[in-house]
């Protein structure tokens, strides 16, 4: 059964929380004196964003829960294949920053995949692109562009490390392929049009990692 649209968090409050906590996190990571503390709370920041996005979704129903589970587990599986088999992304290993690991994969990486795919899916949903194929391709390209910003920050703060400190080209086309598959799942779920909350999260992520790269 679907819940009323206004049952969750108010979109304006959600936007304020997203922007405020990213600003605080940005300042905390940029200052050497506070950086160790803020690196410890990275998993909690991701969990907070997860709650904001979930409760900001209009009409939580079985389709939304199924999409959440598929992207979470799909992200974990893709990363497991990448870390243990090197069939996806390349040769890399996760550091301690993203928190508790299961089979060497941080559980928060599943949350991160859900957040990024959902935020991009809603952004494409609100765009003027009429073709589902175009929305999936453009959305996947956006996520690759975001990964270009994330990678140097992730290495710097030990989210993960690459063998020989080389990010392979394979990482980016695998990001595109995995993102496209998950965005297709978003499209097939047929969610009602969502608020501006998720696109704000996506834009904030671009700014957040863009500033840290500088």
Give an overview in words.
The protein has a two-stranded antiparallel sheet. The protein has a two-stranded antiparallel ribbon with strand order 2-3. The N terminus is likely disordered. The chain has 8 helices and 4 strands; from the N terminus they run H-H-H-H-E-E-E-H-H-E-H-H. By secondary structure, it is mostly helical. The protein is 69% helix and 5% strand. The longest helix is centred in the last third of the chain and has 25 residues.
Concise synopsis of the structure shown:
The chain has helices at residues 11-30, 35-40, 42-56, 62-85, 107-125, 132-156, 169-189, 197-213, and strands at residues 92-94, 101-102, 105-106, 160-162. By secondary structure, the protein is mainly α.
Task: Identify the strand order in the major beta sheet.
Answer: 1-4
Provide the β-strand percentage band.
under 5%
Low-confidence stretches: 1-6
Largest sheet: 2 strands, antiparallel
Instruction: Decide which structural class fits the backbone.
Output: mainly alpha
The figure for the number of domains is 1
Protein name: Carotenoid biosynthesis protein
Keywords: Membrane, Transmembrane, Transmembrane helix
InterPro entries: CruF-like
Structural descriptors:
single chain; 214 residues; mainly alpha; two-stranded antiparallel ribbon; 8 helices; 69% helix; disordered N terminus; CruF-like; Carotenoid biosynthesis protein
